Amino acid sequence: MAALAVLALLLLAACGGQRAAGQKRKEMVLSEKVNQLMEWASKRSVIRMNGDKFRRFVKAPPRNYSVIVMFTALQPHRQCVVCKQADEEYQILANSWRYSSAFTNKIFFAMVDFDEGSDVFQMLNMNSAPTFINFPAKGKPKRGDTYELQVRGFAAEQLARWVADRTDVNIRVIRPPNYAGPLMLGLLLAVIGGLVYLRGSNLDFLYNKTGWAFAALCFVLAMTSGQMWNHIRGPPYAHKNPHTGQVSYIHGSSQAQFVAETHIVLLFNGGVTLGMVLLHEAATSDLDVGKRKIMCIAGIGLVVLFFSWLLSVFRSKYHGYPYSFLMS
């Protein structure tokens, strides 16, 4: 019996030693990975990864840090304009975190380019770029760990809110100074001041109803087309599928839009407005009957044509809408 007890104790000691050795190896591997990531992050805020680095530092355990990965296609032959725009915002976000006083090894920012890690795209069944995914410190990415780019846009501030929601790490976005706005404002004020100075004795142009009406109409068309939404959300100009090369200018969801889409809607609204103006002039002007008929026909044609296009855009975003006009 004593021999059995001694044997049992020896087995327990051996198992405990193996577990301790395994835990020590795990800690050593984790320490090496964190130190390597910190070294890379000290040189570049966004760590470029290929397939091997991705599998070792992002997918393989152990890991006590989160990794935000942007999957993109930046090579010129890919012609992904959106990827370049998103990369600029992503760099701003990563730099804001890297050079903040709160910087720790709790989270890292990385990037996988399709031409450097196509095997990663295949492994994740990914067929579009850019895509942002959070790989949490524990467990696999959940649905919310994939950033809704088409809905929220790729502005650094929007990405920072998503990162805070998924990792509890708050990043204050610090943008490089942009003097374009102040310069444009100064130029506008200079032009207005110059006009007032040159025509100080005759300020009737300030009371020109047509001029003010045109300025107000331009502002209304810009706002109704979604320019303010673009300014707040920062959506991509368009979307190009990296595999098929097909470019989409109209977003397929009613919850998002592209910048190109707002330009198209602005053009269509402008066409309808011009048609209504022609109809009004045809009914109220003192021109001869022949010219008024031409204006009336042109006005009706513009309203019908551009309203039909507007309705077709609406149908493409609100699937199931039953009505159409001229064009389906």
Structure description:
By secondary structure, the chain is of the alpha/beta class. The chain has 2 domains: 35-167, Glutaredoxin (3-Layer(aba) Sandwich); 208-317. Helices cover 57% and strands 8% of the residues. It has helices spanning 2-43, 51-59, 81-98, 118-123, 149-152, 156-167, 180-198, 209-224, 227-233, 259-284, 289-317, and strands at 46-49, 66-72, 107-113, 131-135, 239-240, 247-248. α3 links the parallel β2 (66-72) and β3. It is elongated and about 120 Å long.
In order across it, which strands form the biggest sheet? 1-3-2-4
Instruction: Please tally the β strands and state the result.
Output: 6
- The CATH architecture designation of the largest domain is 3-Layer(aba) Sandwich
**Terminal Cα span:** 90 Å
Mean pLDDT: 84
CATH topology of the largest domain: Glutaredoxin
Rg over CA atoms: 30 Å
Biggest beta sheet summary: 4 strands, mixed
- The tally of structural domains comes to 2
Q: In CATH, what is the class of the largest domain?
A: Alpha Beta
Q: Which structural category do the helix and sheet elements fall into?
A: alpha/beta
CATH homologous superfamily identity of the largest domain: Glutaredoxin
Give the overall form. elongated
Task: Note poorly predicted spans.
Answer: none
Number of helices: 11
Q: Beta fraction of the residues?
A: 5-15%
Order of helices and strands: HEHEHEHEHHHHHEEHH
Give helix % range. Answer: 55-70%
Transmembrane segments: 179-198, 210-229, 264-282, 294-314
Subcellular location: Cell membrane; Endoplasmic reticulum membrane
Pathway: Protein modification; protein glycosylation
Signal peptide: 1-22
